[in-house]
DNA sequence: ATGCTGACTGGGG
DNA sequence: CCCCCAGCCAGCA
């Protein structure tokens, strides 16, 4: 009965669709859901994603490829370790090869 | 209701 | 890519 939950579900669905070794931005997901102006809500939804499993929130970063949400994970560098473990190069909480690992739902999902 | 904060983004320089 | 400014939306004191 809450449209908000639908929004959450969408975010989770897309997040799960993110391939291994790839990342995307909050804005990309927000835009894909039709709420490009509410990119913050995506991050907010991701925050709640901790309540659910199988949500690779570590694969979601800001448009700069900066691990803005790393502070919300258990450890201090857990997010970076997870990404590096997938072959993503990170330096100073920033994805170096962002252009190479960036995953655009519009480009990959919507043909 | 008011003000602040936040896992954000786009545009201009 | 980085910095600054303004817009957006939801939650909280």
Automatic annotation (TrEMBL):
It comes from the Bacteria. One of its GO terms (molecular function) is methyltransferase activity. One of its GO terms (biological process) is methylation. InterPro entries: ATL_DNA_repair, MethylDNA_cys_MeTrfase_DNA-bd, MethylDNA_cys_MeTrfase_DNAb, WH-like_DNA-bd_sf. This is Cysteine methyltransferase. CDD domains: ATase. It comes from Lutibacter profundi. Keywords: DNA damage, Methyltransferase, Transferase. NCBIfam families: ogt (TIGR00589). Residues 6-88 form the Methylated-DNA-[protein]-cysteine S-methyltransferase DNA binding domain.
């Amino acid at each position: 009965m809450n449209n908000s939950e639908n929004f959450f579900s969408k975010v989770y669905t897309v997040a799960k669709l993110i391939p291994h070794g790839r990342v995307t931005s909050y804005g990309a997901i927000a835009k894909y859901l039709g709420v490009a102006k509410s990119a913050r809500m995506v991050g907010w939804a991701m925050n709640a994603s901790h309540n659910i499993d199988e949500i690779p929130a570590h694969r979601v970063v800001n448009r700069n490829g900066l691990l803005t949400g790393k502070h919300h994970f258990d450890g201090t560098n857990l997010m970076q370790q997870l990404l590096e473990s997938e072959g993503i190069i990170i330096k100073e909480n920033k994805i170096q090869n962002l252009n190479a690992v960036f995953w655009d739902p519009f480009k990959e999902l919507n043909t």
